[in-house]
Design goal:
- The protein contains ten helices and no strands.
- By secondary structure, it is an all-alpha fold.
- The longest helix is centred in the middle third of the chain and has 47 residues.
- It is elongated and about 75 Å long.
């Protein structure tokens, strides 16, 4: 697979060869077969973006990019409602109060953007694996494989009986040798947990209806 970019080519090459991206790709695509869609989902942060965000939230010091990222992260993680109690919504531009309002507005926009991207990626990843695990457990039953067995048993069965072509068998054998059943089991439980959280409002309503929570 080849990746091309008209700008920031060396930066992107360095990023794609970093341990961070390697870890991200293990989540996006647990096998070693990366597609263009997987690569396109790698979060890329350019220095120009950091400079812009840092300036918008009121940063004025001449510091390094990493220090700016730390400063932005600290402001976002320590954000509280009290920070906005004194914001004058009617303040005019080019006044101290107006500038403070714009800084707070930029901070909220950045915070909401991060939350949106986080949940968007979480839902995409979770949705893909919910379907995958459901199909795997269904097919395990069809082929008589124990429910709590090894997650690779079905794949090994297909390889052994040559249900798939030679090229696919070789790739899958290599993937299995580099994978861990325990990690997949933990991740499967995490996916089930996240899937349950999406229905939390239903569960909470059901809890309040139960008599065991009522006091005499």
């Amino acid at each position: 697979m080849s990746c091309f970019s008209e700008k920031n080519l060396f930066y992107l090459l360095a990023l794609c060869n970093s341990p961070i991206v390697n870890t991200i790709l293990k989540v996006l695509a647990p096998t070693i077969n990366y597609q263009i869609g997987d690569i396109s989902k790698i979060p890329v942060i350019y220095k120009q973006q950091i400079d812009k965000y840092y300036k918008r939230i009121g940063g004025i010091d001449n510091i390094s990019t990493n220090e700016k990222i730390s400063a932005i992260s600290e402001k976002i993680t320590n954000l509280t409602f009290k920070d906005f109690l004194k914001v004058n919504q009617k303040a005019k531009a080019n006044t101290p109060q107006g500038e403070d309002k714009e800084r707070k507005k930029a901070l909220v926009n950045l915070y909401l953007t991060i939350i949106y991207l986080f949940y968007k990626n979480l839902i995409n990843i979770n949705f893909r694996y919910v379907i995958a695990f459901n199909c795997l457990e269904r097919d395990n039953q069809i082929h008589g494989i124990e429910k709590d067995g090894n997650y690779f048993d079905l794949t090994k069965l297909f390889i052994k009986k040559e249900y798939i072509n030679r090229h696919a068998r070789e790739n899958l054998t290599l993937n299995i040798s580099n994978a861990s059943n325990d990690v997949i089991h933990i991740y499967r439980n995490s996916v089930a947990h996240f899937n349950a959280i999406t229905k939390a409002n239903v569960y909470v309503k059901d809890i309040y209806k139960r008599d065991i929570w009522k006091t005499s």
